[in-house]
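Give me structure tokens for this 597-residue protein.
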Amino acid sequence: MLSNDAQKRAKRILGKHTGKSSRTNLVAIAEEQFERNVIRRFGKLWPVRRFVAVWLLLCVVLVGGVVAQTRALAGYYQALEPTPGGIYHEGIIGSYTNANPLYVTGQVNDAVSKLLFSGLFSYDEQNRLTGDLAKSFEVDKTGTTYTVQLRDNLQWHDGKPLTAADVVFTYKSIQNPDVQSPLTASWQNVAVTAKGDKTVIFKLPNPLSSFPQSLTTGIIPEHAFEGVKPANYRSSPFNTTEPIGSGPFSFKAIEVKGNSPSTRQEEIELVPFRNYHEGEPKLSSIVFHTFPDEMRLVSAFEDRTINAMTGLQELPEALRGDESVKTNIMPLTAANMVFLKTTAGPLKDKAVRQALVGSADVAALTKGLRQPILPVHEPILSGTPGYDPTIQQLSFGPQKAEQILDGAGWVRGQDGIRTKDGQKLAFKLYCQDGRENRRIAEDLQRQWKRIGADVQVYRQADADLRATVSDHSYDALLYGISLGVDPDGFVYWHSSQSDVRSASRLNLSEYSSPVADAALEDGRTRSDPALRAAKYKSFLEAWRDDAPALGLYQPRFTYVTRGDVFNLRDHTLTTDTDRYNNVEDWMIRQEPRTRQR
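Here you go.
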């Protein structure tokens, strides 16, 4: 209500504005009241300025306290927790050429194929073989028949059912020489049949205890190759732009930049498969970025184009002070060794090989490596059935090594290099061009020179080294071999595997020993761990005495990320792509959530 004075003034005003709208009259009244009660009273604030300031300060303190308490309580009752979503960008050195598990080789192809295709089995976080598409398997008393049961309701990315017929098709395709799969030799004489939609039977010609380890190959759909001749499988668009798998992610798109190998970069985008048998992945998508070299890879990581990278032996100096960078170092069930070719040159002499192996200071060679390493002292890894800590490679130092060489007739010349019957103790050591390999090779070169050996080191790019390894065109080779969780080393040490006619020719030392051959043949046919260990003992002893290689250490897989990748855990891997074995649970985003009290 207006006061009496205000009412009188209002009447006067209304009287002055006879004929105008009531709205105009009200505006005039409001303006006069605002001028009288607000504007004209500003001058009276100065005498009570302290009183007003105190009240304003008190209000500010009260409001600030409420805000601070609210934020503190939010931190008490809420916490950041991982949440689904987000695009994961991973960088890899190499190029994308083929995702088909029948042909896949190379880091990029391996990574893409791993996420697109599922195998019958995979490895868990303890590096134990576990079911993937398979839910169980049985082996008969003879050790030659394996019966695998598939999970229920398996699907391909295109929605069609995955059945035992697809498994049979995959392995029969591998066996078909027209398909030209590099896996063909490993599957000869193995009969694969289906019994209904969910049972697959593998019949082996002889017992093979490591056979289940070979059932991790990705399975491909039979209907995708309907009407395609086996000789044309390799050129099918299925391999690159139209793959259909049953893995956690499906293919969406590929973008290629650059016209030459030195500038070519690709982006391969994969999206979650909703009906994946382990549950729909939590990431919105994964994009693989390929790079021709390490420099471009690291540059993309630094400018945050990618938030993960692989293919590095160690973290670059420029990133070591960045607290947002996380380095995951995972040991591989593999061995880095120096393979000494036993069939030609001075390394054909067992005394020379014994001196080289026995004089090498492996601890000094690996001391400069930045990450912790697991040493390799024999051809069977520690923790694997058959490993024997009492039978390890020769290690006696340079003094005894010189005595062995003297006794074998290798005489030092004026230049310090030994000779025998006009032949110099000189050979070429090949390795991949990289900081870690270069350091070890050069240290070995210095160590072996002390005992009278002239070692020339040749560092090669990855593609060139693969050709050198394939042709066995080396004297000594610093290289890594994948051993896995099974001790079967037949392909690396049995004499048959050095023959040029063998499928893999992975006996890199061209080692031949009747004792070792018999032990390797017997050990791989036994399933009992204690019996296998007993069979492998004579192999370890022969390997130690013949010194066909120098064991160094288990390689580590270095995976660098920007920030945390939740549920990515450091653990021992059989292959580097086993880091994806729980990729469906990976998360990179966080949101505040109320704590449960």
